[in-house]
Amino acid sequence: MPLDPLPKLADPRRLAELSTKLEGEVDLGACARLQEFAPENAGRAQAVFAFSRDAQGRVVMEGEARAALRLVCQRCGEPFLDTHRAEWRVVFVPSEDEERRLAGEGIDAWCQQGLLDVIGFLEEELILALPMAPHHREDCEPGHEPESVAHPFAVLAEWFERDPRET
Ligand SMILES: [Zn+2]
Asked: Measured by CB atoms within 10 angstroms of the end CB, which terminus of the chain is less buried, N or C?
């Protein structure tokens, strides 16, 4: 059964009060940033976002997403479909100091206020989970020049300039 579309925006604090989750689909064709790294993708990504509070009362957002993405094999240059999965666990914190402190402990923390850009967040997680050099799982013949596809790390610096998760 097809899932409902995910909402564009959500209030993490309110959803954590309710200990609830969002589950739904996103149209990959509408994910412009993802298309920069994995062009010509249609179809849908399925995702679940679960909201709760941890022992310190902080809002926690855990989730995972799945999508069949069309990638270009870096060995033979041919496109192929890869089942792609991203997972996250993010703790919302009130300050950037706290964000840095938790990052030092290996915890993915985020100083985020207001509404969450659900689709933007999901898109970013899918991009960060892209393989560095995608290739067929089975053997394929090295051959054609691979299509040039920018890898996330090449432009990561630019993203840090304009945090895409800000709403
Ligand atoms: Zn190949």
From this structure: N
Tell me the CA–centroid distance for residue 146 and ligand 1, in Å.
9
Ligand 1 centre to CA of 60 (Å) is: 39
**Structural domain for 157, as ranges:** 9-161
Single pTM value for the model: 0.79
Domain count, the chain: 1
Q: How far apart are CA 2 and CA 43, in angstroms?
A: 12
CA atoms within 13 A on the CB side of 16: 18
Structural domain includes residue 29: yes
Q: Are 88 and 62 in contact (CB under 8 A)?
A: yes
In a domain? residue 2? no
Asked, for residue 99, whether it belongs to a domain, the answer is: yes
- Which residues make up the environment of ion ligand 1, defined by Cβ < 5 Å? 73, 75-76, 136, 140
Q: How far does the centroid of ligand 1 lie from the alpha carbon of residue 139, in Å?
A: 7
Q: What is the DSSP-derived secondary structure letter of residue 5?
A: B
Amino acid at 17: E
Q: How many CB atoms lie within 10 A of CB 62?
A: 15
12 contacts 61 by C-beta, under 8 angstroms? yes
Tell me which residues of the chain have a pLDDT lower than 70.
Answer: 1-2, 144-167
